[in-house]
Amino acid sequence: MTKNKDDILALLQSPPMAFPVDNPYPAYQQLRERTPVYRISPMQWIITQYEDAVAILKHPDISHWGQDPQTQSMMFSEQGQMSKTLYAYAPDSNTPYRKKVLHALAAKNMKIEVEAMHQQASRVVERLRGRDQIEFMADFAHPFTFDTISRIIGVPKEKVEALSDIVGALLQSGGYSQYITYHPESGDGSAFINFLRALVAEKRARPDNDLCSALIEACTDGEDESFILSLVVFLFYAGHENMMKFLGNAVIALQSHEAVQDTLRKDPRLASSGVDELLRYDSPVQFLLMFAKERVQVGEAKIPSGSMLLVCVGAANRDPKIFSNPDQIDLQRRPAHLSFGAGPYRCIGAGLAQLQAGVGLGKFISATKAYNIERNKIQWKSIPYMLRGPSAFPMTMAWNHDFQPA
């Protein structure tokens, strides 16, 4: 396999092609129609058609950048550390970490979580009703989603609020990604890392029926504290920050689909069945970064071994060859979207995400009669060639005072 560390570094630090963060979809459409397999450098390709994307995600000679041992040697320092964390959750890593997460997120456990999700969403809505304006991400998306992931990981109930305040400040200064690769030699004394360090120590001393305890149990004697902390941070990142982005994207999208809003208010249960359609329409995950371990052909393009393939989830999810009227939200649609990946690299937390998204969105929309978002006041957060979603936006609210929280 070609060793192209310089290409990887250049791509992640200074992407050669930029897409508008507020609405990248017209640019995706142009690229998909004109050059569906687009070469942006000698060893970098963007894939925009759905069928090509699925073929890549299921191809035995193509791997996710962080979940294949052959690609880890290609990573520079920080990405190499992140790759180790991702590989721990890979489907073929032969490590116990993925099994521990899957067990914790099993359907029987999620049935218990659903009621707690409903209760938390109701508590958050009750605190907000009566206010003419809210900041959606901080006031609703953050406290609702944080409660669930904290409970699953094992944060003691009496400490969730304190950690929520710490993380709220963290999200304003870059988010979890700065800690997914934790280096003890950095001497980091942030409140977040200090809290997690104390949590890990507590779970070592008194294991419980939670995910943090399970991950600690799975670690071998050779794994240091920094690896365990990275595993836990990644779970917070995936289960909290990404969930916030989904809810933000969905609420923004629904503003221009008033008929869909009305449908959800009449039958909030449709929020759960409609999560996949809303993920298809505007996913927090916009790209999946893959590597060709061998020379492969995608469409008419012959892609050399060692190439990076940027699977554009946002473009594939709106491919008109697969989805009719792709720029419209249709809650009756049951799309096989790529927002959770596909094949062996499908997200292991997909079931939890679908449950939580449906509960949160259904509760919030039911509690409103209408709302208004000024698009020029939306603050977007984007990691080029990876993620996209709002970090903050104000909403003017018209609450449904007949709504009775369950």
Question: Can you tag this structure with a few keywords?
Answer:
single chain; 406 residues; alpha+beta; Cytochrome p450; 3-stranded antiparallel beta sheet; 12 strands; disordered N terminus
How are the SSEs placed, and which strands pair?
Elements: H1 5-13, H2 25-34, E1 37-41, E2 44-47, H3 50-57, E3 62-64, H4 69-72, H5 77-88, H6 97-104, H7 107-128, E4 133-135, H8 136-153, H9 160-171, H10 191-205, H11 211-218, H12 225-255, H13 258-266, H14 269-273, H15 275-281, E5 287-292, E6 296-298, E7 301-303, E8 308-312, H16 313-316, H17 350-366, E9 368-372, E10 379-383, E11 387-392, E12 394-399
Parallel strand pairs: 2-8
Antiparallel strand pairs: 1-2, 3-5, 4-12, 5-8, 6-7, 9-12, 10-11
Helix pairs in contact: 5-12, 6-11, 7-8, 7-17, 8-12, 10-11, 10-12, 12-17
Unreliable stretches, pLDDT < 50, 5 or more residues? 1-5, 75-80
Give the termini separation.
56 Å
The overall pLDDT, averaged over residues, is 85
**Rg, please?**
21 Å
What order do the helices and strands follow?
Answer: HHEEHEHHHHEHHHHHHHHEEEEHHEEEE
CA-based shape: globular
Structural class: alpha+beta
Q: Write down the CATH topology.
A: Cytochrome p450
Write the CATH homologous superfamily. Answer: Cytochrome P450
CATH class bucket = Mainly Alpha
* Share of residues in strands: 5-15%
Major sheet, described briefly? Answer: 5 strands, mixed
CATH architecture call: Orthogonal Bundle
